[in-house]
Amino acid sequence: MSAKTELCIPVSEDRTQYENNQMSANKDYDNDIDYSQRGQWLRAAVLGATDGLVSVASLMMGVGAVKHDVRAMILTGFAGLVAGACSMAIGEFVSVYSQRDVEVAQMKRDRKNEGNSDAESEKEALPNPIQAAAASAFAFMLGAIMPLLAASFIVDHKVRLGAVVATVSLALVVFGWIGAFLGRTPVMKSCLRVLVGGWMAMAITFALTKWIGSTGL
Q1: Residues 112-134: what's their mean pLDDT?
Q2: Which residues cross the membrane (predicted)?
Q3: What is the pLDDT of residue 176?
Q4: Main-chain dihedrals φ then ψ at residue 215, nearest 5 degrees
Q5: In a domain, 33, yes or no
Q6: Cα–Cα distance measured from residue 13 to residue 28, given in angstroms and rounded to the nearest whole number
Q7: Is residue 81 scored above 90 in pLDDT?
Q8: What is the DSSP code string of 137-179?
Q9: Longest C-alpha distance within the chain, in Å?
Q10: Residue 22 within a domain
Q11: For residue 89, what are the domain limits?
Q12: 3 state SS of 11
């Protein structure tokens, strides 16, 4: 019995050491990830999708406040999708290109002051305006298509509005969770923030449009 116990001890110690090494490796991997760098593209993707979702849903809710016609609601949402995607793409392209120009100018000054430098690697590290514009437009369309699909196949007006709100709420929670998971931030706070913001945008648009429509303007 004593011999068996002595034989088991090294195995147990080896396993414990292995698990500790694995945990240490995972911690080192998390420490090696630069979440501030990840946050740059994450911000653009989540912002684009959330913007498309909330802005198009708010437009549709505003039209739905004064018109029961599903055709008007869908056409308004589609126009918002196209206009918003183009606006996001152009805005991101101009913004990233401006950032690129600033970084290029700084690299030239550093190269002049320090002498030789790895210009090729520096060039690869520069932000790409075309990729940023395409990503922003795609993210916007991905978010905007959700309320359009939710309203397209529902005839009853009140049910259609409820379906849009429910779809947008679920999508906002998902977007908030994705952003929190990838950025390693608190999930509940992230989900609640985007959800309340989306509800406010839709409610304000609906209420103001309803009020203006009732005044006969």
Answers
A1: 73
A2: 44-66, 72-97, 132-155, 161-182, 194-213
A3: 86
A4: -85, -10
A5: no
A6: 22
A7: yes
A8: HHHHHHHHHHHHHHHHT--SHHHHHHHHHHHHHHHHHHHHHHH
A9: 94
A10: no
A11: 48-214
A12: helix
CA quadruple 27, 30, 32, 34: dihedral, nearest 10 = -150
Strands (E), the chain: none
Averaged pLDDT for residues 108-117: 72
For residue 181, the tally of other CB atoms under 10 A from its CB is: 11
The answer to whether residue 180 sits within a structural domain is: yes
Would you say residue 24 lies in a domain? Answer: no
- Distance (Å, rounded) from C-alpha 7 to C-alpha 128? 60
Count of beta carbons in the 10 Å neighbourhood of residue 33: 10
pTM (two decimals): 0.71
The domain tally of the chain equals 1
| Residue 174 to residue 178: CA distance in whole angstroms | 6
Helix-then-strand count for the chain, H and E: 7, 0
Residue 59 has pLDDT above 60, yes or no: yes
pLDDT value for 65? 92
